[in-house]
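Mods, move this if it's the wrong board.
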Amino acid sequence: METTLVLLKPDAVRRGLVAEIIGRFERRGLRFRGIRLLQLDRGTAEQHYAEHRERPFFGELVDFICSGPIVALALEGEEAIDLVRGMMGATDPKQSPLGTIRGDLAIALGENVIHGSDSPTSAERELALFFGEAILP
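Not the wrong board. Structure tokens:
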């Protein structure tokens, strides 16, 4: 069993896509270990995206994730990280096949509705950042 972090970004919340996305995870058999609606502060957003700090788009990432409420999910299941990543589709919605969350719901690269941990190490760090020690992978 693995636990992974998923963030439903401000565009997903603003566009009323939260229930649609959560339903997809439920239908795939993932279990919720935690769920939070929150408004990210800049410091937490910078920690979350720290690996991109030196990239030119870092400021835009941080600004966007702080632009409105997000939903943080801790999802558990067999190979949950890979399952969620496959369900999400490519970062660029134009390259995401229909049937994936981004392929069906995202509009643009900068507003691609969802984030998911990309490895067990990232999941552990991200879950701690959003849920503290209450939820361990």
